[in-house]
Amino acid sequence: MNTFNRWIGALAAFLLVHVAMNAQDYRTVASGNWNALGTWEQFNGTSWVPATTVPTSAAGAINIRSPHEVTVTTGSYNLEEVTIEFGGTLTNTTGTINWHVNNGTFGVKVFGTLNANSAGGSFGCCASVSVEGGGFVYMNAGGSFFGPTVVQGNGTVIGNTPINLAAGSPVNNGTWTMTGSNTLTNTAGANFINNGTLTLRGFSLGGTLTNNGTMAWSAGGISGSGSIQNNVGGTFNISISGVNILSANSTNAGTINYSGTGAFNQLNSNTFSSSGTLNITSGIWDSYGNQAFNGPIVMSAGTQFRVQSGGTTSLNAGSSIGGTGTFALTGGTLNQVPAWSISTHTVQIRIHRGHRKLARSQQRCEDPEHDAYEQRHYGLERWRHKR
């Protein structure tokens, strides 16, 4: 985190705290437990005085100041209008925190650090959560983001546990990193919008995952009734291999970079459409479902794109095949709508069995007995048959 951005975060937190003070506002005077009076002081309308009760949702604004750390160890708290200032820390160990709106307008704003170490409602229903620039949220035990959640630019969420997004629809403008084998889950109709950097370790997808930034997927499957949209300007880096590892519908208008060590495929019943670029830099991209391309497929040496049995791949207007890999029809159907555009590199197109359909003549090329391949080089076509 660069110094300028952290200074801006500190200034924003300072202004937020000092613009207005109201009776029953709370702020920390020392590190300690949430339920300890010595941790707090409150504003009586004129000045700050020692707290006589601990803050709850009935309080006004609640500020955790630098360098204080407040720990929730027991009890259940419904909280709102909590600001963790730059340098301040809120740690939830065994208690329960639910962020909701009672008299206020937001749940929590994190300029400092929030350590969610308890499975007891780390972010409950249903107030807004904002991880501000320079702020960090560490999800270290099973927890949820039930309400509207925004990670601002230079804000950070680290998922060291599976996270249930429920019906919330997070927007990530900063950095959201899932670690290990920890997955994300959301329900039908709930969306996740990534405008920053998102690292996935699997997703049980009920809504739409929209990527406008950079998204990396290196572990765990993505499945569900939802869909993935990689928009123009979005980059989706996939480095995982596996059978039926993707079982959700997906579209690509940006760039997908595949660099797995084995074969990657989606479930037969799902669809994939790409008007953007698919770069295969290692491994094998298997088409078992319905895949349609209106953009380029670029294959590095030693890589393969395979149309498998039960799959239908359509090379539509705007599609092209480039690089030095192998495009193989090992089963299923290959629909070629326009004339193929081939780059100035050599691409091998192997047809073992299956159907290749040409739009103009509707010719079908079948060779179940022999292994035939077509090699295109600098626009020239040659057919060779091996027996």
Cα-based radius of gyration, to the nearest Å: 27 Å
The biggest beta sheet reads: 42 strands, mixed
Question: Can you give the mean pLDDT?
Answer: 82
Total strands: 44
Strand content: over 45%
Structural class: mainly beta
Poorly predicted runs are 15-19, 360-387
Helical segment count: 1
Overall spatial form = elongated
Considering DSSP H and I runs of 4 or more, what fraction of the residues is helical? Answer: under 10%
How would you sum up this structure, described in words?
This protein is mostly beta strands. The chain is 4% helix and 49% strand. The protein contains one helix and 44 strands. The protein has a 42-stranded mixed sheet that branches. The longest helix has 16 residues, at 3-18.
Looking at this protein, list some descriptive labels.
two-stranded parallel ribbon, 387 residues
Please sum up the structure shown.
The chain is mainly β and 387 residues long.
Layout: helices, strands, pairs:
Blueprint: H1 3-18, E1 26-28, E2 32-33, E3 40-43, E4 48-50, E5 62-64, E6 69-72, E7 76-79, E8 82-84, E9 89-92, E10 96-99, E11 108-110, E12 113-116, E13 129-131, E14 136-139, E15 143-144, E16 149-151, E17 156-159, E18 163-166, E19 171-172, E20 175-178, E21 184-186, E22 192-194, E23 197-200, E24 203-204, E25 208-211, E26 214-217, E27 222-230, E28 235-238, E29 242-252, E30 255-266, E31 271-274, E32 277-287, E33 290-293, E34 296-299, E35 304-307, E36 312-315, E37 320-323, E38 326-329, E39 333-336, E40 341-342, E41 347-351, E42 355-358, E43 371-377, E44 380-386
